[in-house]
Design goal:
Helix content: 25-40%
Radius of gyration: 20 Å
Strand content: 25-35%
Shape: globular
Number of strands: 15
CATH topology of the largest domain: Dihydrodipicolinate Reductase, domain 2
CATH superfamily of the largest domain: Dihydrodipicolinate Reductase, domain 2
Length: 312
Amino acid sequence: MDRAKIGIIGAGVIAKAHIEALATNRAAIVAGVVSRGYSSAIELATEFDTMAFRSVSEMLEATTLDGLVIAVNVEQTAAVVEECLTFNLKILAEKPIALDLERADRLVRLAKGASSDIFVAHNRRFYQSTVKLIDELQGINSQRSVVVFDQEDPKEAIDVFGEAPSVAAKSMYANSIHQIDFFNIICRGEIINVDVIEPWSGSETRSVVAKISYDSGDSGIYIAAWSRPGPWSVQVFTDERFFQMAPVEELSAQSRFTRVKETLAEEKGPVKPGFEGQAHNFVSACLGEAHGLVSLSESHRTMQLISKIYAE
């Protein structure tokens, strides 16, 4: 059996989640861990019986790789991706690839002439709920109306989750990307208009509301609560059926002329939601097989939508 040798850049919680997901695939070999904090790399590598390295160049000198997972601090992601563009490897970088659209634009330009193939880790696209939703929608031709509820709290991000203030200030890219991506997952065609109904107003923002229109006739409503409590959820209306992801790890459906909701999918298992399916697709990409990973350009498309909604 062919096996893919994959290196990990980063030694935090998300890097560990990627390793745990790769460990579920017999075709994957985690060849080593790199981290700016070498002691952290040693600790994570020891836990998963692999090697620790001080730098990517050191790891590449010690072993032959097929792919790299980049799971570093979000403020460092863009620089690390740039460093890896010339390695002639499959690269899976955590989202967002940058904390502003200008830096993301630069990465897209640089990647066009690069030897490495860059993919972005949109793990929610691999949720069982998301996969099932897209499968259910394949047989429905009517217009799709999508409502996405988002919630962001920069103070909570800093005080509870330990985010840097510079990252919390960019929560629309650092975190809202999870929810806003659902518009491009579900709606067909290209975006023709973004109508901002309640605009972003910096630290004074309490809600952001926008309507997104696609040339297919599909449309979306985005509602975000800022510095207020509220759940993340996704609703999809079609002529035949209504679908709801609330929480987004679960999918239920209701058919026309009924009031009964049917549970279609729930995320279960020890691995972080969406990571196992994403890992399997990354291994396939590393082995030159068909896969469903999110390309850099597709992730960039969602960042462009964020920029239009938040109009910084």
